[in-house]
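ok, trying the design again with the full structure, not the truncated one.
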């Protein structure tokens, strides 16, 4: 008997290790494929001319373009400038990622070089290192368990489970049909798109009107709309409404179909019916307001939002929708009022982010810190929540480093797992000894720049380094010194912008460039590229 039990334990252990090994390999392959997909998504399309000189611009939001349009960022304008004088001789690839630090940029650069035949790299990175500490670690090696993808997946699962439990208080029920897929903003979370016929097969194998089947119907409707098969989408939604009068997504989907087909009267009629049938729920009012917004009938949309507030149910979602309405109209003052009203009713990390963005642009740095601390309390494992805290700290005078250090220590007491995380410990150190941490961050930046330089030289790629047009003084100075010490072609964007004056003409939101600012950046980079090529 003992032998049998021991044998079973041995077989189970070996099987478990084999399964975990296969899973680890699968996750690593998945990570590699995800990198290739990310590169395809962010880099943009290269021209078909194989003889073109390929210029890879890489860095953070100053490369991506901040909050502006893709066609207005400096890489896009650089492409147009070069093409105007030299058609088809240059290809500019935008490899920027918002809030990317030097380590993340180095990692991304390796993938881009593998994918594209790059001739010149134009680098602008370093500002995010002062608040994005992901990848910065003095530890030489990572523990074996922490390095495993399985361990990381388990941590991500635990973080998301905690977030889901925290958000459960603010979900908007859709009459018990697809409640599981509604996030804290009252929006339905979509899965990866799949073929419409595959979804139909899943429905055929379903069990009647179960929540799972209704989930499939939801995805089928979305798939049909995305495929512009409006006739079948309309028929699907009409059948669902006929058989289930309380299914929100059917009304919402039918509204989208009618609006896309410009059958506005029918869209309004169906939503008015929904309002009569569901007077005590806000969702039909929100859909009607979206219908009016689609037609740019803004005053009527606001009237409907006010009617939704009179329902006195899920007011937070209504105020959030009103805030989104004003943001689309670029009226940040009224958007902020609406968002702050929404936060009185719902605790939403994403909504905190929107509020912080507006407050940062308005110079309300003290309040940015307040919301950042709330976000960290709600989700301390998500280091994106720490970025605005560090960024706003530099501009305010209400909170001391000691205040924030004590706050983070208290968070660590309530969430002991943070004590084992190198990134969290570095944020703790940042507010414990800022001068010492500043020196370490600059050493980190130098190390990554050295690796980027070596990577380019090993691949016979020219490297151009530029600093920021905005006065990130110590980062700009450090970048300039590195370029000088290593005799790397350097674009002194800060010096040029300093001589221009009129910051309101060249900068928007708090530090990002306007279209005109990106034009100046592109012109400066163009001059340096042509100068290098002539040499």
């Amino acid at each position: 008997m003992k032998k049998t039990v021991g044998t079973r334990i041995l077989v189970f252990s070996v099987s478990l290790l084999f399964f975990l090994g296969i899973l680890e390999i699968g996750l690593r392959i998945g990570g590699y494929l995800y990198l290739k997909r990310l590169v395809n998504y962010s880099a943009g399309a290269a021209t078909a001319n194989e003889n073109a000189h390929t210029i890879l611009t890489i860095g953070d939001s100053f490369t991506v373009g901040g909050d502006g349009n893709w066609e207005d960022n400096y890489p896009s304008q650089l492409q147009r400038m070069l093409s105007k004088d030299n058609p088809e001789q240059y290809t500019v690839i935008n490899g920027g990622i918002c809030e990317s630090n030097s380590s993340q940029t180095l990692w991304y650069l390796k993938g881009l070089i593998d994918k594209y035949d790059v001739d010149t790299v134009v680098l602008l990175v370093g500002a995010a290192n002062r608040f994005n500490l992901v990848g910065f670690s003095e530890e030489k090696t990572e523990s074996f368990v922490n390095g495993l993808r399985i361990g990381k997946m388990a941590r991500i699962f635990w973080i998301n489970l905690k977030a889901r439990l925290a958000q459960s208080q603010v979900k908007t029920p859709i009459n018990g049909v697809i409640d599981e897929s509604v996030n804290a903003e009252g929006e339905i979370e979509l899965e990866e798109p799949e073929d419409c016929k595959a979804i139909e097969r899943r429905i055929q194998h379903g069990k009647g009107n179960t929540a799972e089947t209704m989930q499939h119907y939801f995805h089928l409707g979305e798939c049909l709309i995305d495929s512009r098969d409006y006739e079948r989408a309309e028929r699907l939604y009409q059948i669902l409404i006929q058989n289930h009068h309380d299914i929100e997504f059917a009304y919402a989907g039918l509204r989208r179909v009618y609006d896309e087909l410009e059958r506005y009267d029918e869209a309004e009629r169906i939503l008015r019916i929904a309002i009569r049938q569901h007077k005590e729920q806000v969702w039909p009012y929100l859909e009607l307001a979206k219908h009016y917004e689609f037609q740019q009938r803004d005053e009527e949309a606001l009237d409907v939002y006010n009617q939704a507030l009179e329902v006195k149910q899920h007011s937070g979602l209504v105020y959030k929708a009103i805030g989104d309405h004003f943001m689309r109209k670029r009226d940040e003052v009224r958007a902020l009022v609406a968002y702050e009203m929404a936060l009185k009713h719902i605790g939403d990390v994403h909504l905190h982010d929107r509020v912080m963005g507006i407050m940062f642009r308005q110079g309300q740095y003290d309040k940015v810190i307040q919301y950042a601390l709330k976000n960290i309390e709600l989700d301390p494992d998500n280091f994106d929540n720490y970025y605005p805290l560090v960024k706003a700290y530099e501009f305010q005078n209400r909170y001391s480093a000691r205040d924030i250090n004590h706050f983070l220590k208290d968070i660590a007491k309530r969430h002991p797992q943070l004590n084992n995380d190198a990134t969290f410990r570095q944020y703790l150190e940042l507010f414990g000894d800022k001068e010492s941490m500043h020196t370490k961050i600059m050493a980190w930046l130098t190390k990554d720049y050295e690796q980027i330089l070596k990577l380019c030289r090993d691949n016979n790629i020219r490297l151009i380094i530029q600093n920021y047009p905005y006065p990130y003084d110590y980062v700009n100075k450090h970048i300039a010194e590195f370029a000088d010490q290593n005799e790397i072609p350097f674009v002194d964007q800060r010096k040029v912008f300093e001589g221009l004056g009129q910051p309101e003409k060249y900068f928007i939101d708090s530090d990002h460039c306007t279209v005109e600012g990106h034009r100046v950046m592109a012109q400066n980079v163009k001059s340096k590229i042509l100068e290098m090529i002539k040499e």
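Keeping the full-length input from now on. The first helix runs from residue 2 to 43.
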